[in-house]
Amino acid sequence: MVAVAALGVSALGACSDDKPGNIEPRLHTLEAADISRTEATIAGQCVVDGGAEVPQLWFRYGEGEDMEHKSESVGPESGADGIVRLRLTGLTPGTTYYYMLQGGNGTAVLLADRMAFTTLPNDMPSVGGAAVLSSSPMSIIVGYTITDDGGDPITVSGCYLSRADGSDLGHGIGTEQRVEQTATPDADGMLRLRIGGLQPGIAYTVTPFAANRNGEDRGTSATVTTSQATVLAEAGQLTELVGDDKYSYTSLSLAGPLNGSDLRTLRDMAGCDDENNPSAGRLADIDLSGAQIVAGGMAYAAGRYTEDDVVGMGMFASCAALSSIVLPQQVVRIEAEAFRDCTSLRSLVVSASVADIKPSSGCTALADITVSAANTYYSSKDGVLLSADGTAILWFPMGKSGEYTLPSTVTAVGDYAFRDCSIERFAFADGLTAIGQCAFYGSKVREVSLPSTLRQVPTGTFQQCASLSIVRLGEKTELLGNYVFDGCPLTDIYISAPTPPVCSANTFTSSGASIFSTCRLHVAKGRKLYYKYNSTWGQFTRIVEEN
Fold first, then answer.
1. How far apart are CA 504 and CA 479, in angstroms?
2. Which terminus of the chain has fewer CB atoms gathered within 10 Å of its CB, N or C?
């Protein structure tokens, strides 16, 4: 049964003249209009004279001459000389339909001439132009729409790929490759197609196509040149863009928005899957200078979601392949442990906008932290992260080894600043006045000399420094916090302070052997008794007075 829909109608006043009132209305069937594959508008006219009433009107129509369908009543259009129209829908393409206008007043039926029209036949589809949505050195994502299916189901669609210069694509493909679509359109009717296996720095032409049983149509082509950068038009596209090539990348430059889903993929590419297990990823060098971290998407790690312009806790943790990374220009905060256990990470570049940085542990190869000269919160010297004015050392790279003398400008050391670092001997020039908690936690330091200007040694300063054997404390040392030497195999403590510094209850508490019996305490000449009779310092069994 063919569905029909009658146009809205309004009453038409019948024309009258001086003719007798018994003249019957005359009906005419008019030419059909707006004929498509599945729709058409049929029309007729009712002419009344002598004040006769307009009869009830309807159309008969159908594929046969008997016109098996009858419409609902239709009325003449206002001011249109008795013309009535009916829009038919759901018709069969390429089919002849017969129709006529009929009318009646309940006792007699008036008939107009029978006429016919033929719907347009089905055709091949129509395809819009190609749009390159995202690109990488080895792949692109193309968007296109099928503007008209031609009246028959689409049997296949996709894109033709060729090199813009007409040369061979290689790998025995020839000059043109047909890449077929398997996805369905999005809410806006756009089809997205990933094309992989490309080469960097090559200009490619992509041409969308669609086919049905009647033929194939090609849309307008687009040309794109692959580069060393991967460009995302919108957040969440990285997984689709890199596709099966994700473990092939060793270096990657990214531009565009990155959400949690993108960073989850990036972590996988750099050696850590979504369950925090090692992956086959080989991505070592990442340049995010043209990217922006945005909120949204999946969790990049267990329970961790992205925030705008924040390198969050654990964002790159355990990415074993990661060797160097340039952070996005808009980043304002780098949270603690963002790079935890990135054992291959050698360099980190901090952009001008970063206003808050916390160190990460386990970066055993990290040897260089570089800060943009335009940053007003931080600076760097010799690969070490400092405050903007150079007075505070905030993060010392673990990968540095040998000896290290702090710049003369440094007056403060931040919390955990030397955590796990590989420097074996530290010398602090006079001028250092403050040192943060756990500043040397877990480091490989063997010998430390603290300056005379430092008054307090805070909680956990040398905790778990498993190689530390010699510590020299300055003459103005006044206070030692808890667990300062916990886990340290100290053999000698040298202290120049004439009066024994105040100690917290657990200053010398250690998870190792008792420090009081294994370590010699060296004090200034003439000050041995002051230390011997102090309730804390006097517990050392060997107190040596220096000459």
1. 8
2. C
